[in-house]
Amino acid sequence: MVPVPWPRLFLGCLGLFLSLLSVAVAEFTPSLDSDFTFTLPAGRRECFYQPMRKEASLELEYQVLDGAGLDVDFHLLSPKGETLIFDERKSDGVHTVETEDGDYMFCFDNTFSTISEKVIFFELILDNMGEDGQDQEDWKKYVTGTDLLDMKLEDILESINSVKARLSKSVQIQTLLRAFEARDRNIQESNFDRVNFWSMVNLGVMVVVSAVQVYMLKSLFEDKRKSRT
């Protein structure tokens, strides 16, 4: 077995450290995922714009958390003004489109409702928005003598990407679960108020009926004959 010179081994370890550092910086950049909750008044329409790059991916998920019917109209338009997706009177939806350069517009329409406002939650997940391929190529110039190591940097990069993807998926699922919880809580509170209202109405009717029955029974036993003088 040929002994490895210390300077060369040191340079190899240094190259490995720099490559891992550059991979960490490139891979763990701020997430492009975002979510938003807003109130859409009755008879109104709200639109949002999202700039996208070519060959990227736009995933949008929305839910109606509160409001009569739990429904809303949803439109997604391309930068050219073409309607890509149209949902009519839906309570939730998930859509993914491959994008081109330009601003994508998505709108929530509550013009069909004249009384009830809606509370709407939506989440945007943007993929392939950065120059990841170029970043992954840049770190390779720091590698020196890595052929002496058993573990390949490609395997480390693959593991880091896998962990990042799983963490992003976990965050997305937790966000959706919070949205479901908020919608269910609003439904339960609405049902609770409705039960209390009708319980009070029934109680009032019972009191009135009881009073009428007592009055009628009392009138049956009254002596209506006039006394003679």
Automatic annotation (TrEMBL):
Residues 45-126 form the GOLD domain. It comes from the Eukaryota. InterPro entries: Emp24-like, GOLD_dom, GOLD_dom_sf. Pfam families: EMP24_GP25L (PF01105). One of its GO terms (cellular component) is Golgi apparatus. The chain crosses the membrane at residues 197-217. It is found in: Endoplasmic reticulum membrane; Endoplasmic reticulum-Golgi intermediate compartment membrane; Golgi apparatus, cis-Golgi network membrane; Membrane. Residues 1-26 form the signal peptide. Keywords: Endoplasmic reticulum, Membrane, Signal, Transmembrane, Transmembrane helix. The keyword Metal-binding does not apply. The keyword Phosphoprotein does not apply. It is a single-pass type I membrane protein. Belongs to the EMP24/GP25L family. PANTHER family: TRANSMEMBRANE EMP24 DOMAIN-CONTAINING PROTEIN. This is TMED5 protein. It comes from Nycticryphes semicollaris. The lineage of its organism: Eukaryota, Metazoa, Chordata, Craniata, Vertebrata.
